[in-house]
Amino acid sequence: MTKKKQQKKRKTPNRTCIACRKVKPKTDLIRCTLQDGKPVVDCEGRLGGRGANLCPTKECLIAAIEKGAFNRVWKTGFKEEDLESLKRDFVACLEKRKFRKGAKSLVYRVKASEVEGAVGKNLTRKLDK
Ligand SMILES: [Zn+2]
Questions:
Q1: Which residues pair with 14 in a beta bridge?
Q2: How far does residue 58's CA lie from ligand 1's centre (Å)?
Q3: pTM for the model
């Protein structure tokens, strides 16, 4: 059994997702923290405070909110309604990360003429009635 599991490079510390409890390298998780009593997404990993780590998926974010996982980490140091803005930050952070990693983003290439044509047809149809 000589599986080379350890990478030669610097070891990234592991963190546990507060929703699904999966242990992953810190960099694979999105860190949320409290800033002045407001839950924020620490997208750049620069903020202090008590961190709550999540998988970069909406599912884990929703699960964490539903399970009250944030309450476990932050106790009552935040307002539940502020989790709404956390959700938005989280989604924005997901987009940013995707972009940075160079993952294929979904781009639909549609010719302007095609769109114009379709719109024009619909318009004409409407006008005919
Ligand atoms: Zn998770």
A1: 25
A2: 9
A3: 0.68
How far away, in angstroms, is 109 Cα from ligand 1 center? 33
Q: How far is the CA of 73 from the centre of ligand 1 (A)?
A: 15
Domains defined for the chain, CATH in brackets: 14-102 (3.30.1230.10)
**CA 98-27-25 angle, 5° bins:** 130
- The number of C-alpha atoms within 13 Å of 114 and in the hemisphere containing its C-beta is 4
pLDDT digit string, tens, across residues 25-74: 999 999 999 998 999 999 988 899 899 999 999 999 999 999 999 999 99
Which one-letter DSSP state was computed for residue 27? G
CA 77 to ligand 1 center in whole angstroms? 22
Q: Which residues, listed in sequence order, are joined to residue 42 by a DSSP beta bridge?
A: 31
